[in-house]
Amino acid sequence: MSAPTETPPTTATAAPRARRFWSARRIPAALTALVVLGTAGLLLYDVTAVRAHRPGMTWRRTLAHELASRPLNDVWVVTGAAVAAAIGLWLLLLAATPGLRAVLPMRRDTTPIRAGLDRHAAELALRDRAMEVPGVRSARVSVGRRRARVRAEVNHRDTDSVRADLDAALADGLARLSLARPPALALSVRRTAGG
User: Fold this and answer.
1) Quick one: which of 173, 94, 88, 85 has its CA closest to 127?
2) Which residues are CB-contacts of 141 (< 8 A; sequence separation ≥ 6)?
């Protein structure tokens, strides 16, 4: 029987895929756990009281009577079912999505370290790059996961030349942010009212 052979680690390994950061969600999880625990404890107490030949809680007897006597197409039954289904779908959506939308994942070339950039910091960096372009009076930047929207106001240069300079400066700025998925640039340039 031959010994298993180990393949030596290669130096040119593929970069790991940068995924979005997941939020801890401690507060919603704690609140949900407290509500479930309280409801389960209340129902367990009521079931134990009924098994001990004592009357059940009034609200549970009333609810059981209402559910037994109302038809399934009653407005209150349908509304309660719709609300319960919506809450369940919302909880499933919360469990399946990362949640930290304010952190943009950065590129992971070869290091095992995960890094993220705050959206506000990315907006400030791109706004500073836009303000360095001659002729730009003001710039507003909003960075999303898929698109970086830049609105610039020009006061004394030709808007086409400012747009070309802004396009080059912002493309370089987006490349220097080292984001895993650089957002597409949406640039809007307009002349100020007095310019």
Assistant:
1) 173
2) 123, 124, 126, 127, 130, 148, 149, 150, 151
All structural domains of the chain with their residue ranges: 26-96, 114-191
**Phi-psi domain of 122 (left: phi exceeds 0; alpha: psi -120 through 50; beta: other):** alpha
Q: Alpha-carbon distance 6 to 78, whole Å?
A: 62
Give tens-digit pLDDT for 77-93.
899 899 999 988 988 88
CA distance 177 to 182: 8
- 114-191: what fold? Alpha-Beta Plaits (3.30.70)
31-83 pLDDT, tens digit each: 888 998 999 998 898 889 888 888 888 888 887 888 788 888 888 889 989 99
Closest by CA to 42, choosing from 26, 56, 23, is 56
